[in-house]
């Protein structure tokens, strides 16, 4: 099973972060600080071993201090019965109120998995633990463990796979490590009073000495000496001068990977430990890794739809001409066999169980178009699940246009969550209830994206328009090609009633179905940096060009008013508590 996971990852993961090109030398970069000979630099500085016996462990630290950077270390852990031992790789400052970013690897008895323990301290306060089991044996070969630390976020990675993102939430009163330079530390020590199964399993000293091996130390960071940073003198007037880690955030594949890890391999999350935090979770627990707002107060009463009003509705946008084939136009990206293409490519089913969700993406990238998908959402008790259909580009400062469907307990309505990101910034959320049961049959969800506006539609009824307001200084997604993505995953830490209602795994597997995938759009070629619509005669897939200048007619504007008056439950343009310094400029303009 582990090998199949690694094969899947190697196929779909193109590297969430840019790899460091050359390994450093332990003689040059580090110094052994304790252990009386138990720490040894090997092979001319290419490797370093730490050992632990009943008398002492051992450790080393970097010679330099850093304020932000990317830090890579390859480690091979203590093999066999490592119970009671802790192998570490972390950053830390000194003194009272220190900052710290931790990888700690908690040993176990033979045949049982290591626990990867992560934590973040700021101004001396931690309690931000997340723990994971690995999808491979970390004792048989070296694997790469990485900390990316910049002013906006901290990313923990294992073999380039992101396992955790800790964002800077100073805006909601959460301290963040950004002012204290830190050194790199590594150690091997005994902690059998707590490390293995809560201290129930003790270190077996007959197995000593225990040894952990380190190699390929890579540090690409801002060195601080005498209070001055080596990055301070670098010109900041060009994006070309910024290193990738300085602005790094997860792209769409990275976000899918972190969902996969956290749904399948996370074994502890401080944001879900209600016994420990009986007085309430820390504020950042209400934010997801994609900056969803979870403390939204919704209408207590959901009005029922007047179906008669639909009988007089004229369609405001043209329907797609034909359906694409999932075999030809989509690639399953994660979930092992939980994603199934069926009916000769006309239907695709995604499933979610306690181990993993699943997802797919389009083979092509697009720069503008109309994108339609028919979905039948998870029926019954779907609380905690999120079904998605969205567009996204890659890399730092990505663009994204989101449809996300937040499940609920039986009898309660789904929440349709929409958002627009441009140049990496979102916070444009609008949420809606639907006027029908989206689990009993297929319904069509559409995104129209052109250079003037983005229109979200449900069964050809517009529910939202996001206009291009670049003239007001509001970024608009128009320069980055995007793929179509769809997924089904667990997000019970925030998705349903702010995380208060958890996923009922006795109902698993959960299944959502997709069909009639239509892309009438401009295909982008990354190899030539050209669009299929770039010729003198503009031509898109299917040759239907109405989306390129699409706007709402009178009937469309009436339909939009009807939806937003009756079914909208959250609008970022009306959330004065969240945006106490004032709303974004586009909020003062017409919704059309």
From TrEMBL:
Q: Please list which residues make up the signal peptide.
A: 1-22
Which residues fall in a coiled-coil region? none
Going by the entry's taxonomy, the superkingdom of the source organism is recorded as Eukaryota
Keyword set for this entry? Disulfide bond, Glycoprotein, Glycosidase, Hydrolase, Signal, Transferase
**SUPFAM superfamilies, per the entry:** Concanavalin A-like lectins/glucanases
Q: Does the keyword Glycoprotein apply?
A: yes
The GH16 domain covers 20-214, 320-514
Give the E.C. number(s): 2.4.1.207
The record's Gene3D superfamilies line, in alphabetical order, gives:
2.60.120.200
Reaction(s) catalyzed by this protein? breaks a beta-(1->4) bond in the backbone of a xyloglucan and transfers the xyloglucanyl segment on to O-4 of the non-reducing terminal glucose residue of an acceptor, which can be a xyloglucan or an oligosaccharide of xyloglucan
The answer, when asked if Translocase is one of the entry's keywords, is no
Q: Which Pfam families match?
A: Glyco_hydro_16, XET_C
Q: Could you tell me what this protein is called?
A: xyloglucan:xyloglucosyl transferase
């Amino acid at each position: 099973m582990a090998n199949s996971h690694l094969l899947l990852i190697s196929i779909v993961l193109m590297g969430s972060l840019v790899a460091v090109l050359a390994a450093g030398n332990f003689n040059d970069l580090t110094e052994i600080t304790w252990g009386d000979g138990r720490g040894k630099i090997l092979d001319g500085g290419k490797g370093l071993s730490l050992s632990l016996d009943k008398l002492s462990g051992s450790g080393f630290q970097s010679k330099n201090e850093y304020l932000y950077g990317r830090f890579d270390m390859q480690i091979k852990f203590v093999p066999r019965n490592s119970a009671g031992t802790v192998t570490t790789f972390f950053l830390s400052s000194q003194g009272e109120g220190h900052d710290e970013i931790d990888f700690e690897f908690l040993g176990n008895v033979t045949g049982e998995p290591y626990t990867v323990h992560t934590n973040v301290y700021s101004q001396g306060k931690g309690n931000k633990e997340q723990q994971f089991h690995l999808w491979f044996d970390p004792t048989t070969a070296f694997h790469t463990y990485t900390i990316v630390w910049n002013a906006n976020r901290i990313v923990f990675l294992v073999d380039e796979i992101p396992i955790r993102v800790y964002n800077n939430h100073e805006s909601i009163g959460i301290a963040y490590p950004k002012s204290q330079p830190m050194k790199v530390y590594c150690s091997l020590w005994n902690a059998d009073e707590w490390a293995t199964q809560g201290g129930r399993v003790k270190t077996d000293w007959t197995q000593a000495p225990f040894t952990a091996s380190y190699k390929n130390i890579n540090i690409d960071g801002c060195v601080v000496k005498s209070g001055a940073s080596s990055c301070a003198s670098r010109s900041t007037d060009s994006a070309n001068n910024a290193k990738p880690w300085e602005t790094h955030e997860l792209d769409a594949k990275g976000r899918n990977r972190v969902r996969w890890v956290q749904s399948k391999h996370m074994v502890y999350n401080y944001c879900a430990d209600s016994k420990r935090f009986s007085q309430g979770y820390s504020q950042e627990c209400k934010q997801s890794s994609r900056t969803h707002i979870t403390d939204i107060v919704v209408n207590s009463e959901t009005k029922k739809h007047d179906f008669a009003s639909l009988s007089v509705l004229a369609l405001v946008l043209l329907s797609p001409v034909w359906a694409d084939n999932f075999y030809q136009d989509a690639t399953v990206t994660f979930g092992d066999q939980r994603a199934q293409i069926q009916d000769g490519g006309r239907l695709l089913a995604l499933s979610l169980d306690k181990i993993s969700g699943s997802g797919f993406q389009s083979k092509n990238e697009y720069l503008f178009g109309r994108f339609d998908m028919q979905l039948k959402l998870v029926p019954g008790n779907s609380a905690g699940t999120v079904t998605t259909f969205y567009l996204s580009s890659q890399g730092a400062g990505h663009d994204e246009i989101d449809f996300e469907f937040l499940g609920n307990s039986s009898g309660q309505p789904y929440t349709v969550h929409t958002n627009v990101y441009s140049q990496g910034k979102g916070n444009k959320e609008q949420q809606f209830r639907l006027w029908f049961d989206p689990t009993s049959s297929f319904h069509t969800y559409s995104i129209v994206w052109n250079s003037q506006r983005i229109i979200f539609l449900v069964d050809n009824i517009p529910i939202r328009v996001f206009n291009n307001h670049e003239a007001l200084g509001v970024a608009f997604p128009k320069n980055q090609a995007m793929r179509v993505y769809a997924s089904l995953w667990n997000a019970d830490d925030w998705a349903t009633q702010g995380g208060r209602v958890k996923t009922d795994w006795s109902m698993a597997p959960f299944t959502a179905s997709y069909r009639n995938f239509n892309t009438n759009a401009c295909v982008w070629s990354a190899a030539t940096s050209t669009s299929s619509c770039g010729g003198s005669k503009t031509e898109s897939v299917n040759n239907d060009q109405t989306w390129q200048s699409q706007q709402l007619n009178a009937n469309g504007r009436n339909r939009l008013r009807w939806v937003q008056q009756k079914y909208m439950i959250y609008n970022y343009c009306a959330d004065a508590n969240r945006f106490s310094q004032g709303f974004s400029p586009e909020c003062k303009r017409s919704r059309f």
